[in-house]
TrEMBL record:
<comment type="subunit">
    <text>Homodimer.</text>
</comment>
<feature type="compositionally biased region" description="Basic and acidic residues">
    <location>
        <begin position="20"/>
        <end position="29"/>
    </location>
</feature>
<keyword id="KW-0460">Magnesium</keyword>
<feature type="active site" description="Proton acceptor">
    <location>
        <position position="97"/>
    </location>
</feature>
<comment type="similarity">
    <text>Belongs to the UPP synthase family.</text>
</comment>
<comment type="function">
    <text>Catalyzes the condensation of isopentenyl diphosphate (IPP) with allylic pyrophosphates generating different type of terpenoids.</text>
</comment>
<feature type="active site">
    <location>
        <position position="49"/>
    </location>
</feature>
<feature type="binding site">
    <location>
        <position position="236"/>
    </location>
    <ligand>
        <name>Mg(2+)</name>
    </ligand>
</feature>
<dbReference type="InterPro" id="IPR001441">
    <property type="entry name" value="UPP_synth-like"/>
</dbReference>
<feature type="binding site">
    <location>
        <begin position="50"/>
        <end position="53"/>
    </location>
    <ligand>
        <name>substrate</name>
    </ligand>
</feature>
<dbReference type="GO" id="GO:0045547">
    <property type="term" value="F:ditrans,polycis-polyprenyl diphosphate synthase [(2E,6E)-farnesyl diphosphate specific] activity"/>
</dbReference>
<feature type="binding site">
    <location>
        <position position="62"/>
    </location>
    <ligand>
        <name>substrate</name>
    </ligand>
</feature>
<feature type="binding site">
    <location>
        <position position="49"/>
    </location>
    <ligand>
        <name>Mg(2+)</name>
    </ligand>
</feature>
<feature type="binding site">
    <location>
        <position position="217"/>
    </location>
    <ligand>
        <name>substrate</name>
    </ligand>
</feature>
<dbReference type="GO" id="GO:0000287">
    <property type="term" value="F:magnesium ion binding"/>
</dbReference>
<feature type="binding site">
    <location>
        <position position="100"/>
    </location>
    <ligand>
        <name>substrate</name>
    </ligand>
</feature>
<dbReference type="Pfam" id="PF01255">
    <property type="entry name" value="Prenyltransf"/>
</dbReference>
């Protein structure tokens, strides 16, 4: 046994001494790069789909899939930082998800609480700003206070923005934005004919944030599912077959490579 350890340490065995600097350099070398450095991706949004099917195929309860989904979310956050993204948006809980069985909804709420409680200090240390988009007013009081705390304690961070879409629906977001603008019209703050796209963008939950460059959806489904309907108008979409719990660094990098292999025309001609 001792000989095996010695062989590994001296290079005569199958393993060699770990070199953190070398390993980090090798990890960075496989990061996808744009052909034009000026077109580097800034914002990726992900529809995290497939937790339930992942669990079902393994004979596990759905909550087990959701727990593994939290682990996948942590991997995505780390990879986003490695890629140098300024923004990552994760679609965590939709306004339609309230229709699921009560036990599953409770589990999803509890997982959100656990994620914030366990990871908030780390996000503060690592200069990550947390933003929650969605209808916070209708959340359970304990969840609402917790997400507000996460936003408050990371408000001064400027290294990376993590947006979590929680109790979010694109149509609901637009409804709330239009209602806000309508109130301003009624108060005489603005005239109807003066309303521009900028006014609407500023009334959305994502006000001040760049639109996503890339939207990734897992689990093989090819739908937008009421996600960032306004903001993703010119985003590129990548649909992956992997269920969300199986989404890792390799899948993330593959999606970004696909993005860099496309020509973005924004409605114009190539």
């Amino acid at each position: 046994m001792a000989g095996g350890i010695a062989g590994a340490l001296t290079g005569n065995g199958s393993a060699a001494l770990a070199d953190p600097a070398r390993d980090a350099a090798e990890a960075r070398s496989d990061l996808p790069q744009p052909a034009d450095p000026g077109h580097r991706i800034r914002h990726v949004a992900i529809i995290m789909d497939g937790n339930g099917r992942w669990a079902k195929e393994r004979g596990l309860p759905r909550v087990a899939g959701h727990r593994e989904g939290v682990a996948a979310a942590r991997r995505a956050i780390e990879t986003a930082r490695e890629l140098g993204l300024s923004h990552l948006t994760l679609y965590s809980f939709s306004t339609e998800n309230w229709r699921r069985p009560e036990t599953e909804v409770r589990s999803l709420m509890e997982l959100m609480k656990q994620f914030i409680e366990s990871d908030l200090d780390k996000m503060v240390r690592e200069n990550i700003r947390v933003r929650i988009i969605g209808d916070k007013e209708t959340l359970p009081t304990d969840i609402r206070k917790l997400v507000e705390r996460a936003e408050r304690e990371t408000a001064g961070n400027d290294g990376h923005v993590l947006q979590i879409a929680f109790n979010y629906g694109g149509r609901d977001e637009l409804r709330r934005a239009v209602s806000l603008i309508a109130r301003k019209v009624a108060e005489g703050v603005i005239k109807p004919e003066e309303i521009t796209e900028t006014h609407l963008s500023r009334a959305l939950d994502t006000s001040g944030m760049p639109d996503p460059d890339l939207v990734i959806r897992t689990s093989g489904e090819h739908r937008v599912s009421n996600f960032l309907l306004w903001q993703a108008a010119y985003a590129e979409y990548v649909f992956l077959d992997a269920y969300w719990p199986d989404f890792g660094r390799d899948e993330f990098l593959d999606a970004v490579r696909q993005f860099y292999g496309r020509e973005r025309r924004y409605g114009g001609r190539g």
